[in-house]
Design goal:
There is one protein chain. Helix content is about 85%, strand content about 0%. By secondary structure, it is an all-alpha fold. The radius of gyration is 23 Å and the shape is globular. The two termini are about 35 Å apart. The chain folds into two domains: about 425 residues, no CATH class; about 80 residues, no CATH class. Helix 1 packs across helix 6, helix 9 packs parallel to helix 13 and helix 12 packs antiparallel against helix 13.
Length: about 500
Protein backbone atom coordinates (compact mmCIF):
# COMPACT_ATOMS: atom_id res chain seq x y z
CA UNK A 1 0.00 0.00 0.00
CA UNK A 2 1.08 3.56 -0.74
CA UNK A 3 2.63 5.64 2.02
CA UNK A 4 1.42 9.22 2.35
CA UNK A 5 3.10 12.35 3.68
CA UNK A 6 1.81 13.98 6.87
CA UNK A 7 -0.54 16.38 5.06
CA UNK A 8 -1.96 13.58 2.92
CA UNK A 9 -2.48 11.31 5.91
CA UNK A 10 -4.18 14.09 7.86
CA UNK A 11 -6.54 14.86 4.98
CA UNK A 12 -7.49 11.17 4.84
CA UNK A 13 -7.86 11.00 8.61
CA UNK A 14 -9.88 14.20 8.80
CA UNK A 15 -12.16 13.19 5.92
CA UNK A 16 -12.81 9.77 7.42
CA UNK A 17 -13.33 11.35 10.85
CA UNK A 18 -16.02 13.65 9.45
CA UNK A 19 -17.79 10.64 7.95
CA UNK A 20 -17.35 8.67 11.18
CA UNK A 21 -18.65 11.59 13.24
CA UNK A 22 -21.83 11.67 11.16
CA UNK A 23 -22.28 7.89 11.43
CA UNK A 24 -21.62 7.89 15.18
CA UNK A 25 -24.02 10.80 15.60
CA UNK A 26 -26.74 8.69 13.98
CA UNK A 27 -25.84 5.74 16.22
CA UNK A 28 -26.01 7.89 19.34
CA UNK A 29 -29.27 9.41 18.12
CA UNK A 30 -31.02 6.02 18.14
CA UNK A 31 -29.07 3.89 20.64
CA UNK A 32 -30.23 5.69 23.82
CA UNK A 33 -33.82 5.44 22.60
CA UNK A 34 -33.51 1.80 21.56
CA UNK A 35 -31.99 0.68 24.89
CA UNK A 36 -34.12 2.89 27.19
CA UNK A 37 -32.59 5.21 29.79
CA UNK A 38 -31.81 2.33 32.17
CA UNK A 39 -30.32 0.11 29.44
CA UNK A 40 -28.23 2.98 28.14
CA UNK A 41 -27.04 3.55 31.70
CA UNK A 42 -25.71 -0.02 31.86
CA UNK A 43 -24.10 0.40 28.44
CA UNK A 44 -22.35 3.60 29.56
CA UNK A 45 -21.19 1.98 32.81
CA UNK A 46 -19.74 -1.08 31.02
CA UNK A 47 -18.12 1.06 28.33
CA UNK A 48 -16.36 3.34 30.79
CA UNK A 49 -15.33 0.68 33.31
CA UNK A 50 -14.14 -2.01 30.92
CA UNK A 51 -12.36 0.44 28.61
CA UNK A 52 -10.36 1.51 31.66
CA UNK A 53 -9.75 -2.12 32.67
CA UNK A 54 -8.41 -2.98 29.20
CA UNK A 55 -6.20 0.13 29.04
CA UNK A 56 -4.88 -0.64 32.52
CA UNK A 57 -4.06 -4.23 31.58
CA UNK A 58 -2.27 -3.01 28.44
CA UNK A 59 0.39 -1.38 30.66
CA UNK A 60 1.09 1.30 27.99
CA UNK A 61 2.49 -1.35 25.64
CA UNK A 62 0.45 0.16 22.76
CA UNK A 63 2.35 3.46 23.13
CA UNK A 64 5.63 1.58 23.08
CA UNK A 65 4.58 -0.30 19.94
CA UNK A 66 3.73 2.92 18.06
CA UNK A 67 6.92 4.71 19.12
CA UNK A 68 9.24 1.83 18.27
CA UNK A 69 7.54 0.76 15.04
CA UNK A 70 7.47 4.39 13.79
CA UNK A 71 11.28 4.38 14.02
CA UNK A 72 11.78 0.89 12.55
CA UNK A 73 9.06 0.06 10.02
CA UNK A 74 11.15 -2.84 8.74
CA UNK A 75 11.04 -4.65 12.10
CA UNK A 76 7.97 -6.90 11.78
CA UNK A 77 8.74 -8.60 15.06
CA UNK A 78 7.52 -5.55 17.01
CA UNK A 79 3.99 -6.04 15.69
CA UNK A 80 4.04 -9.83 16.14
CA UNK A 81 5.18 -9.48 19.75
CA UNK A 82 2.56 -6.86 20.53
CA UNK A 83 -0.36 -8.84 19.06
CA UNK A 84 0.69 -11.95 21.00
CA UNK A 85 0.85 -9.86 24.17
CA UNK A 86 -2.66 -8.47 23.57
CA UNK A 87 -4.04 -11.98 22.99
CA UNK A 88 -2.54 -13.15 26.29
CA UNK A 89 -3.93 -10.30 28.40
CA UNK A 90 -7.35 -10.68 26.76
CA UNK A 91 -7.55 -14.33 27.84
CA UNK A 92 -6.40 -13.41 31.36
CA UNK A 93 -9.03 -10.64 31.62
CA UNK A 94 -11.86 -12.94 30.54
CA UNK A 95 -10.86 -15.59 33.06
CA UNK A 96 -10.48 -12.99 35.84
CA UNK A 97 -13.90 -11.38 35.21
CA UNK A 98 -15.61 -14.80 34.97
CA UNK A 99 -14.08 -15.95 38.27
CA UNK A 100 -14.91 -12.62 39.92
CA UNK A 101 -18.52 -12.91 38.77
CA UNK A 102 -18.82 -16.28 40.50
CA UNK A 103 -17.54 -15.00 43.85
CA UNK A 104 -20.26 -14.42 46.43
CA UNK A 105 -20.84 -10.74 47.15
CA UNK A 106 -19.36 -9.42 43.89
CA UNK A 107 -22.78 -8.47 42.48
CA UNK A 108 -22.30 -4.79 43.43
CA UNK A 109 -19.34 -4.48 41.05
CA UNK A 110 -21.54 -5.36 38.08
CA UNK A 111 -24.65 -3.50 39.30
CA UNK A 112 -26.96 -6.52 39.00
CA UNK A 113 -25.98 -7.53 35.43
CA UNK A 114 -25.64 -11.20 34.44
CA UNK A 115 -22.11 -12.59 34.05
CA UNK A 116 -22.85 -13.23 30.36
CA UNK A 117 -23.70 -9.57 29.74
CA UNK A 118 -20.67 -8.47 31.74
CA UNK A 119 -18.34 -10.66 29.65
CA UNK A 120 -19.87 -9.28 26.46
CA UNK A 121 -19.24 -5.73 27.74
CA UNK A 122 -15.63 -6.67 28.54
CA UNK A 123 -14.97 -8.16 25.10
CA UNK A 124 -16.58 -5.21 23.36
CA UNK A 125 -13.96 -3.05 25.09
CA UNK A 126 -11.16 -5.55 24.27
CA UNK A 127 -11.93 -5.57 20.54
CA UNK A 128 -12.44 -1.78 20.41
CA UNK A 129 -8.99 -1.28 21.96
CA UNK A 130 -7.41 -3.80 19.59
CA UNK A 131 -8.99 -2.08 16.59
CA UNK A 132 -7.55 1.25 17.76
CA UNK A 133 -4.11 -0.37 18.17
CA UNK A 134 -4.19 -1.96 14.72
CA UNK A 135 -5.09 1.41 13.15
CA UNK A 136 -2.19 2.97 15.12
CA UNK A 137 0.03 0.27 13.61
CA UNK A 138 -0.95 1.49 10.14
CA UNK A 139 -0.36 5.12 11.22
CA UNK A 140 3.12 4.18 12.42
CA UNK A 141 3.80 2.86 8.93
CA UNK A 142 2.45 6.09 7.35
CA UNK A 143 -0.56 4.31 5.81
CA UNK A 144 -4.00 5.80 6.41
CA UNK A 145 -6.39 5.16 3.51
CA UNK A 146 -7.19 1.46 3.87
CA UNK A 147 -7.86 1.48 7.65
CA UNK A 148 -10.04 4.59 7.17
CA UNK A 149 -12.21 2.69 4.65
CA UNK A 150 -12.50 -0.32 6.96
CA UNK A 151 -13.47 1.92 9.89
CA UNK A 152 -16.22 3.58 7.88
CA UNK A 153 -17.60 0.21 6.72
CA UNK A 154 -17.53 -1.11 10.30
CA UNK A 155 -19.36 1.89 11.75
CA UNK A 156 -21.85 1.85 8.88
CA UNK A 157 -22.72 -1.78 9.62
CA UNK A 158 -23.22 -1.03 13.32
CA UNK A 159 -25.31 2.03 12.41
CA UNK A 160 -27.60 -0.08 10.22
CA UNK A 161 -28.02 -2.55 13.09
CA UNK A 162 -28.93 0.15 15.61
CA UNK A 163 -31.38 1.91 13.29
CA UNK A 164 -33.03 -1.38 12.27
CA UNK A 165 -33.21 -2.50 15.89
CA UNK A 166 -34.78 0.78 16.95
CA UNK A 167 -37.47 0.80 14.27
CA UNK A 168 -38.24 -2.92 14.70
CA UNK A 169 -38.16 -2.68 18.49
CA UNK A 170 -35.87 -5.73 18.76
CA UNK A 171 -32.58 -4.20 19.91
CA UNK A 172 -31.36 -4.89 23.42
CA UNK A 173 -27.92 -4.53 25.00
CA UNK A 174 -27.01 -8.20 24.59
CA UNK A 175 -27.75 -8.27 20.85
CA UNK A 176 -25.92 -4.97 20.36
CA UNK A 177 -22.79 -6.37 22.02
CA UNK A 178 -22.83 -9.61 20.00
CA UNK A 179 -23.10 -7.85 16.65
CA UNK A 180 -20.60 -5.12 17.60
CA UNK A 181 -17.98 -7.67 18.68
CA UNK A 182 -18.52 -9.79 15.57
CA UNK A 183 -18.20 -6.89 13.13
CA UNK A 184 -15.17 -5.47 14.95
CA UNK A 185 -13.42 -8.86 15.01
CA UNK A 186 -13.89 -9.30 11.24
CA UNK A 187 -12.53 -5.78 10.64
CA UNK A 188 -9.45 -6.48 12.76
CA UNK A 189 -8.82 -9.77 10.91
CA UNK A 190 -8.97 -8.04 7.51
CA UNK A 191 -6.70 -5.19 8.62
CA UNK A 192 -4.08 -7.54 10.09
CA UNK A 193 -4.10 -9.90 7.12
CA UNK A 194 -3.68 -7.09 4.58
CA UNK A 195 -0.98 -5.38 6.67
CA UNK A 196 0.99 -8.59 7.10
CA UNK A 197 0.79 -9.40 3.38
CA UNK A 198 1.91 -5.92 2.25
CA UNK A 199 4.62 -5.64 4.89
CA UNK A 200 6.17 -8.90 3.70
CA UNK A 201 6.20 -7.54 0.14
CA UNK A 202 7.80 -4.24 1.24
CA UNK A 203 10.28 -5.83 3.69
CA UNK A 204 10.89 -9.44 2.53
CA UNK A 205 13.87 -9.72 4.90
CA UNK A 206 12.30 -7.98 7.87
CA UNK A 207 14.31 -7.94 11.09
CA UNK A 208 13.17 -9.45 14.37
CA UNK A 209 14.39 -9.99 17.94
CA UNK A 210 13.79 -12.64 20.57
CA UNK A 211 10.76 -12.44 22.88
CA UNK A 212 13.12 -11.73 25.78
CA UNK A 213 14.66 -8.77 23.94
CA UNK A 214 11.23 -7.33 23.13
CA UNK A 215 10.09 -7.70 26.71
CA UNK A 216 13.21 -5.85 27.85
CA UNK A 217 12.79 -3.10 25.23
CA UNK A 218 9.09 -2.58 25.97
CA UNK A 219 9.77 -2.67 29.71
CA UNK A 220 12.26 0.23 29.53
CA UNK A 221 9.62 2.32 27.72
CA UNK A 222 6.62 1.25 29.77
CA UNK A 223 8.09 1.06 33.28
CA UNK A 224 7.60 4.76 34.14
CA UNK A 225 4.04 4.63 32.74
CA UNK A 226 2.68 1.44 34.32
CA UNK A 227 1.75 2.78 37.73
CA UNK A 228 0.46 6.09 36.41
CA UNK A 229 -1.67 4.32 33.78
CA UNK A 230 -3.08 1.90 36.37
CA UNK A 231 -3.89 4.67 38.85
CA UNK A 232 -5.46 6.84 36.14
CA UNK A 233 -7.72 4.06 34.87
CA UNK A 234 -8.53 2.91 38.41
CA UNK A 235 -9.76 6.43 39.10
CA UNK A 236 -12.10 6.21 36.08
CA UNK A 237 -13.44 2.87 37.34
CA UNK A 238 -14.03 4.26 40.84
CA UNK A 239 -15.64 7.37 39.35
CA UNK A 240 -18.14 5.36 37.32
CA UNK A 241 -18.81 2.89 40.15
CA UNK A 242 -19.52 5.77 42.53
CA UNK A 243 -21.86 7.36 39.99
CA UNK A 244 -23.77 4.11 39.46
CA UNK A 245 -23.79 3.18 43.16
CA UNK A 246 -24.78 6.56 44.66
CA UNK A 247 -26.79 8.13 41.82
CA UNK A 248 -28.17 5.17 39.82
CA UNK A 249 -28.43 4.19 36.18
CA UNK A 250 -30.42 7.31 35.14
CA UNK A 251 -27.60 9.62 36.18
CA UNK A 252 -25.16 7.21 34.52
CA UNK A 253 -27.21 7.60 31.33
CA UNK A 254 -27.08 11.42 31.61
CA UNK A 255 -23.31 11.31 31.91
CA UNK A 256 -23.22 8.72 29.12
CA UNK A 257 -24.87 11.21 26.74
CA UNK A 258 -22.33 13.90 27.66
CA UNK A 259 -19.46 11.45 27.23
CA UNK A 260 -20.70 10.26 23.84
CA UNK A 261 -20.77 13.85 22.55
CA UNK A 262 -17.19 14.15 23.78
CA UNK A 263 -16.31 10.94 21.92
CA UNK A 264 -17.95 12.28 18.76
CA UNK A 265 -15.79 15.40 18.90
CA UNK A 266 -12.71 13.28 19.52
CA UNK A 267 -13.11 11.96 15.98
CA UNK A 268 -12.15 15.47 14.85
CA UNK A 269 -8.95 15.99 16.84
CA UNK A 270 -7.75 12.49 17.85
CA UNK A 271 -6.64 11.53 14.30
CA UNK A 272 -4.32 14.55 14.23
CA UNK A 273 -2.89 13.65 17.64
CA UNK A 274 -2.34 10.04 16.55
CA UNK A 275 -0.44 11.17 13.47
CA UNK A 276 1.68 13.48 15.63
CA UNK A 277 3.09 10.45 17.48
CA UNK A 278 4.90 9.32 14.36
CA UNK A 279 5.74 12.87 13.30
CA UNK A 280 7.41 13.77 16.61
CA UNK A 281 9.23 10.41 16.70
CA UNK A 282 10.71 10.99 13.22
CA UNK A 283 11.81 14.62 13.80
CA UNK A 284 12.86 14.18 17.46
CA UNK A 285 16.51 14.86 16.53
CA UNK A 286 15.70 18.31 15.09
CA UNK A 287 14.67 20.58 17.97
CA UNK A 288 13.68 23.50 15.70
CA UNK A 289 11.27 21.32 13.72
CA UNK A 290 9.84 19.96 16.97
CA UNK A 291 9.32 23.50 18.34
CA UNK A 292 7.49 24.63 15.19
CA UNK A 293 5.32 21.51 14.97
CA UNK A 294 4.42 21.65 18.68
CA UNK A 295 3.32 25.32 18.71
CA UNK A 296 1.48 24.96 15.40
CA UNK A 297 -0.32 21.86 16.69
CA UNK A 298 -1.39 23.62 19.89
CA UNK A 299 -2.84 26.52 17.92
CA UNK A 300 -4.71 24.36 15.41
CA UNK A 301 -6.03 21.84 17.94
CA UNK A 302 -7.30 24.48 20.34
CA UNK A 303 -9.06 26.45 17.62
CA UNK A 304 -10.64 23.46 15.91
CA UNK A 305 -11.85 21.93 19.17
CA UNK A 306 -13.07 25.24 20.57
CA UNK A 307 -15.09 25.86 17.41
CA UNK A 308 -17.21 22.75 18.00
CA UNK A 309 -17.17 22.61 21.80
CA UNK A 310 -18.11 26.24 22.44
CA UNK A 311 -21.10 26.03 20.09
CA UNK A 312 -22.35 22.97 21.97
CA UNK A 313 -21.84 24.75 25.32
CA UNK A 314 -23.93 27.73 24.22
CA UNK A 315 -26.67 25.72 22.46
CA UNK A 316 -26.76 22.60 24.68
CA UNK A 317 -30.28 23.38 25.96
CA UNK A 318 -31.47 23.14 22.35
CA UNK A 319 -29.19 20.35 21.13
CA UNK A 320 -29.73 17.72 23.85
CA UNK A 321 -33.56 17.54 23.61
CA UNK A 322 -33.28 17.65 19.81
CA UNK A 323 -30.81 14.75 19.60
CA UNK A 324 -31.81 12.52 22.51
CA UNK A 325 -35.33 13.55 23.52
CA UNK A 326 -36.78 15.48 26.46
CA UNK A 327 -36.06 12.64 28.89
CA UNK A 328 -32.35 13.41 28.51
CA UNK A 329 -32.63 17.12 29.33
CA UNK A 330 -30.79 16.36 32.57
CA UNK A 331 -27.67 15.87 30.43
CA UNK A 332 -27.47 19.58 29.46
CA UNK A 333 -25.15 20.77 32.27
CA UNK A 334 -22.95 17.62 32.23
CA UNK A 335 -22.56 18.10 28.48
CA UNK A 336 -21.55 21.75 28.86
CA UNK A 337 -18.94 20.81 31.45
CA UNK A 338 -17.62 17.95 29.31
CA UNK A 339 -17.16 20.32 26.38
CA UNK A 340 -14.71 22.36 28.46
CA UNK A 341 -12.96 19.08 29.22
CA UNK A 342 -12.92 18.26 25.49
CA UNK A 343 -11.06 21.47 24.63
CA UNK A 344 -8.25 20.71 27.05
CA UNK A 345 -8.33 17.01 26.22
CA UNK A 346 -7.23 17.93 22.69
CA UNK A 347 -4.30 19.87 24.10
CA UNK A 348 -3.48 17.00 26.42
CA UNK A 349 -3.26 14.67 23.42
CA UNK A 350 -0.78 16.99 21.67
CA UNK A 351 1.46 17.18 24.74
CA UNK A 352 1.09 13.46 25.34
CA UNK A 353 2.09 12.68 21.74
CA UNK A 354 5.15 14.92 22.12
CA UNK A 355 6.33 13.43 25.43
CA UNK A 356 5.69 9.78 24.52
CA UNK A 357 7.10 9.97 20.98
CA UNK A 358 10.30 11.60 22.23
CA UNK A 359 10.33 8.89 24.96
CA UNK A 360 10.12 11.39 27.84
CA UNK A 361 8.04 8.80 29.67
CA UNK A 362 9.30 9.70 33.16
CA UNK A 363 8.24 13.34 32.71
CA UNK A 364 4.89 12.26 31.27
CA UNK A 365 4.27 9.97 34.25
CA UNK A 366 5.26 12.59 36.83
CA UNK A 367 2.96 15.20 35.29
CA UNK A 368 0.06 12.74 34.98
CA UNK A 369 0.19 11.96 38.72
CA UNK A 370 -1.06 15.51 39.35
CA UNK A 371 -4.29 14.77 37.45
CA UNK A 372 -4.67 11.41 39.22
CA UNK A 373 -4.40 12.98 42.68
CA UNK A 374 -6.92 15.68 41.79
CA UNK A 375 -9.36 13.14 40.30
CA UNK A 376 -9.34 11.02 43.44
CA UNK A 377 -9.90 14.06 45.66
CA UNK A 378 -12.78 15.29 43.50
CA UNK A 379 -14.47 11.86 43.52
CA UNK A 380 -14.90 12.18 47.29
CA UNK A 381 -15.86 15.85 47.01
CA UNK A 382 -18.38 15.73 44.13
CA UNK A 383 -19.67 12.13 44.02
CA UNK A 384 -19.47 10.43 47.39
CA UNK A 385 -22.09 11.92 49.78
CA UNK A 386 -20.40 14.29 52.23
CA UNK A 387 -21.15 17.27 54.49
CA UNK A 388 -20.75 19.72 51.57
CA UNK A 389 -22.84 17.73 49.05
CA UNK A 390 -25.01 15.34 51.14
CA UNK A 391 -26.39 13.56 48.05
CA UNK A 392 -23.42 13.95 45.76
CA UNK A 393 -23.68 15.76 42.41
CA UNK A 394 -24.41 12.74 40.19
CA UNK A 395 -23.60 13.15 36.49
CA UNK A 396 -22.71 16.81 36.99
CA UNK A 397 -20.16 15.83 39.63
CA UNK A 398 -18.41 13.39 37.29
CA UNK A 399 -18.33 15.96 34.47
CA UNK A 400 -17.01 18.62 36.87
CA UNK A 401 -14.30 16.20 37.99
CA UNK A 402 -13.21 15.50 34.41
CA UNK A 403 -13.18 19.21 33.57
CA UNK A 404 -11.32 20.63 36.56
CA UNK A 405 -8.70 17.88 36.63
CA UNK A 406 -7.97 18.07 32.93
CA UNK A 407 -7.87 21.87 32.86
CA UNK A 408 -5.34 22.02 35.70
CA UNK A 409 -3.21 19.04 34.67
CA UNK A 410 -3.10 19.96 30.97
CA UNK A 411 -2.16 23.56 31.68
CA UNK A 412 0.75 22.34 33.83
CA UNK A 413 1.78 19.82 31.15
CA UNK A 414 1.71 22.44 28.37
CA UNK A 415 3.78 24.79 30.53
CA UNK A 416 6.34 22.02 31.11
CA UNK A 417 6.58 21.27 27.39
CA UNK A 418 6.95 24.98 26.59
CA UNK A 419 9.78 25.27 29.09
CA UNK A 420 11.52 22.13 27.79
CA UNK A 421 11.40 23.61 24.27
CA UNK A 422 12.64 27.03 25.49
CA UNK A 423 9.34 28.71 24.59
CA UNK A 424 7.60 31.54 26.46
CA UNK A 425 4.91 30.27 28.86
CA UNK A 426 2.69 33.22 27.90
CA UNK A 427 2.34 31.73 24.39
CA UNK A 428 0.17 28.91 25.76
CA UNK A 429 -2.12 31.29 27.66
CA UNK A 430 -2.44 33.58 24.64
CA UNK A 431 -3.56 30.68 22.42
CA UNK A 432 -6.18 29.61 24.97
CA UNK A 433 -7.84 32.86 25.80
CA UNK A 434 -7.84 34.23 22.27
CA UNK A 435 -9.66 31.25 20.77
CA UNK A 436 -12.08 30.81 23.69
CA UNK A 437 -13.06 34.48 23.91
CA UNK A 438 -13.72 34.81 20.18
CA UNK A 439 -15.69 31.55 19.91
CA UNK A 440 -17.79 32.35 23.01
CA UNK A 441 -18.66 35.86 21.81
CA UNK A 442 -19.63 34.72 18.31
CA UNK A 443 -21.63 31.70 19.57
CA UNK A 444 -23.52 33.76 22.17
CA UNK A 445 -24.29 36.47 19.59
CA UNK A 446 -25.51 33.85 17.08
CA UNK A 447 -27.85 32.26 19.61
CA UNK A 448 -29.18 35.62 20.79
CA UNK A 449 -29.86 36.66 17.19
CA UNK A 450 -31.72 33.42 16.46
CA UNK A 451 -33.75 33.74 19.67
CA UNK A 452 -34.70 37.28 18.60
CA UNK A 453 -35.71 36.03 15.14
CA UNK A 454 -37.83 33.25 16.68
CA UNK A 455 -39.62 35.79 18.85
CA UNK A 456 -40.41 37.84 15.75
CA UNK A 457 -41.24 34.89 13.47
CA UNK A 458 -42.98 32.14 15.53
CA UNK A 459 -42.72 29.68 12.62
CA UNK A 460 -38.96 29.55 13.19
CA UNK A 461 -39.40 28.49 16.83
CA UNK A 462 -38.50 24.84 16.14
CA UNK A 463 -35.48 23.21 17.81
CA UNK A 464 -33.98 21.92 14.56
CA UNK A 465 -34.37 25.28 12.84
CA UNK A 466 -32.92 27.18 15.80
CA UNK A 467 -29.87 24.92 15.97
CA UNK A 468 -29.26 25.10 12.21
CA UNK A 469 -29.60 28.89 12.03
CA UNK A 470 -27.33 29.35 15.05
CA UNK A 471 -24.75 27.02 13.52
CA UNK A 472 -24.75 28.83 10.18
CA UNK A 473 -24.38 32.30 11.73
CA UNK A 474 -21.73 31.06 14.16
CA UNK A 475 -19.71 29.34 11.42
CA UNK A 476 -19.82 32.43 9.22
CA UNK A 477 -18.53 34.56 12.09
CA UNK A 478 -15.67 32.17 12.93
CA UNK A 479 -14.64 31.87 9.26
CA UNK A 480 -14.50 35.66 9.01
CA UNK A 481 -12.15 35.78 12.02
CA UNK A 482 -9.92 32.99 10.67
CA UNK A 483 -9.67 34.62 7.22
CA UNK A 484 -8.82 37.96 8.83
CA UNK A 485 -6.35 36.57 11.42
CA UNK A 486 -5.08 33.17 10.13
CA UNK A 487 -1.96 33.46 12.31
CA UNK A 488 -4.09 32.44 15.28
CA UNK A 489 -4.22 28.95 13.78
CA UNK A 490 -0.55 28.82 12.94
CA UNK A 491 -1.13 29.65 9.25
CA UNK A 492 0.36 32.69 7.54
CA UNK A 493 -1.85 34.92 5.36
CA UNK A 494 0.21 34.03 2.32
CA UNK A 495 -0.19 30.30 2.95
CA UNK A 496 -3.94 30.75 3.36
CA UNK A 497 -4.17 32.75 0.12
CA UNK A 498 -2.24 30.06 -1.76
CA UNK A 499 -4.50 27.33 -0.42
CA UNK A 500 -7.60 29.30 -1.41
CA UNK A 501 -6.18 29.86 -4.92
CA UNK A 502 -5.72 26.10 -5.30
CA UNK A 503 -9.26 25.45 -4.06
CA UNK A 504 -10.79 27.86 -6.56
CA UNK A 505 -8.29 27.04 -9.33
CA UNK A 506 -6.95 30.56 -9.57
CA UNK A 507 -3.46 31.29 -10.79
Amino acid sequence: MKRDNFAGRYIVKLSSSIVLTVINAVIQLFLPRALSVEGYGFYSYNLNVFTSVVVMANLSASNAMVSKFSRKNEERGIIKFYLEYVALISVILNIAVFVLGKIQGSEGLFQGQTIYLVLLGLNAAVFNKLLTDVISMYDAAAISRFPAVIQILLKSAICVLVCAGYFLGTLDLQLFYVVQISITAVSIFILCKVFWRDHKKTYPTSTSKSVKEYISSFWVFCKPLILVSCFAQLNVIIMNWALMNYAGERQQAMFGVALQINILLSYVFSPYAELLKREFAVIAHDIEQVKFKFIQSLRQMFWITSYFAVFIIICADWLIPLLFGEEYRGAVLPTQLMMVYTIYQAWGQVTGSFLLSTEKTKSYAALTYIGIALTLAFIFLFQVPNFIFPNGLGAEGVALNYTLCNLIATTIMVSFCMKSLSQKLFTGWKIQFGALAECLLVAAAAKALVALLCGTVPALNILFVKVMLSGIIYTAGILAIVFKFPEQMGISKETLKNKLRKVFHRE
